[in-house]
Amino acid sequence: MTTPRTPNRSSRTKGGELRAKVARLLADRPADTLTIGEMARQLGHSHGAVRNATFTLVRRGEAADQGGTGQTGFRANAKTVAAAKTAVISPPGTHAPRAQAATTRTTTPAAAAPRRTGPIRRAGGQLYHPRELADLPDVEALNRLRDADVPVLLYGPPGTGKTSLVEAAFPDLLTVAGDGDTTVGDLIGEYTQADNGNFVFQYGPLVTAMTEGRALLIDDATLISPMVLAALYPAMDGRRQIQVKAHKGETIKAEKGFYLIAGHNPGVHGAVLTEALSSRFSVQIQIGTDYDLATALKIDARVVRVARHLAHQVELGELGWAPQLRELLSYQRTEAVLGTKAALANLVGIAPAEDRDAVADAVIKTVGITKVAPLALGKQLPASAARHAPGSTVSTPRGRSR
Asked: Would you call 22 exposed, middle or buried from its count of C-beta atoms within 10 A (0-12, 13-18, 19+)?
């Protein structure tokens, strides 16, 4: 059995190499949809490290995620081959503008600070529409808090835009997608086997963010074990440093610009906001869905009214779920492809089972239909109907298509 060796600092895996390995694996199997677990086993890296690398590829538009009823799968897209050839951790010029912006904001009166009110394009290409926070655009407020090194916890239901806000505010962002399996190694790093067979210490996103002065989002932080989260605390307080016990006990100090922000979904099963974690975040911001924005984005006004009504019932404690902006945008896309009837049925179907009847009743009353049920397959179509389905080609006696 090979014993892991202790590498020199110069021999450690460079940032972005694992992401390139994941991209190469996907590019080599363009017809396959691979799960995180399958890729981790083939690459010989930890589940958490591969998950972070894969999610980064998806956010950058360099891989595609394929949802389903089971585990999320991932496939190559048109940009994956290029991503497999590079280990660049972020676009050139990402860090220098950040340092310059920080200097500008700390020397400019608040009244003269720029106000980012228009849509902001995130790293993955999606647009983010800023909202008001403390009489400022939310992205500007978060940047001021970063400059002052005030940790922020964003909390609210899934799909309200917590991650989108952070990605829009911090172009240099690294993200850890937290869950019950997240380990200290997923944050700080661990030994992995390199292509040459030797074991090297792969630094985690926390170390990368600290040494490069970048922002780090711990998404779904309250799903992570409190003992694992404790590894973050020395980096958040006045020490601004951590000790990597697994790697010669070395001390990592945070460079200027390092910033930690976390997301919390209170209603998600297993999410526990401990006092130790809560006390580390001086500012805690509630994030909800902006239904006015949903209307401005041309989402069916009737469906927005349904969502508002259900959200009010959630506030009163009469219901446990209401469609958030993510679900409303999904409704809009589904409606464009399958039509209103199917989109309404899908909206009811994605609601938790215990709230589904209430959601259906709200849809029926507001939209003015007599019946709605979760989207489901019906009876088998006759062969003639299948031949005449949209997009099919029907043969004529002479062999021509019409």
From this structure: buried
Poorest-pLDDT segment among 26-35, 208-217, 221-230, 392-401: 392-401
**243 near 158, Cβ under 8 Å?**
no
Which runs of consecutive H residues, i.e. helices, occur in 32-118?
Answer: 36-43, 47-59, 80-83, 95-107
Beta bridge partners of 202: 190
- The CA-CA-CA angle for residues 222, 56, 118, to 5°, reads 85
Burial 335-354 (b: 16+ CB within 10 A, else e): beeeeeeebbbbbbbebeee
Q: pTM for the whole thing?
A: 0.65
Identify whether the C-beta of residue 140 lies closer than 8 Å to the C-beta of residue 132.
Answer: no
What is the residue type of 207?
Answer: V
Residue 33 CA to residue 66 CA, distance in Å, equals: 8
Tokens of 132: 């008001």
Task: Give the strand pairing for 174-177 and 259-264.
Answer: unpaired
Compute CA distances 59 → 65, 171, 242, whole Å: 10, 12, 28
Quick one: pLDDT at residue 46? Answer: 66
Contact assessment for residue 320 and residue 355, using Cβ atoms and an 8 Å cutoff: yes
Give first-to-last CA distance, the chain, whole Å: 67
Distance CA 281, CA 11 (A): 36
Mean pLDDT for the stretch of residues 203-231: 93
Instruction: Judge whether 226 and 209 are in contact, CB under 8 Å.
Output: no
The neighbour count for residue 263, using CB atoms within 10 Å, is 25
Structure tokens at 359: 């959601």
What are the two backbone dihedrals, phi and then psi, of residue 132, each rounded to the nearest 5 degrees? -80, 135
* Distance separating alpha carbons of residues 244 and 237, to the nearest angstrom: 17
CA distances to 58, 63, 77, 301 from 86, rounded to whole Å, are: 15, 14, 16, 45
The residue among 206, 209, 207 whose CA lies nearest residue 221 is: 206
Sequence-ordered strand ranges (E) for 52-170: 64-66, 73-75, 120-121, 127-128, 132-133, 136-137, 152-155
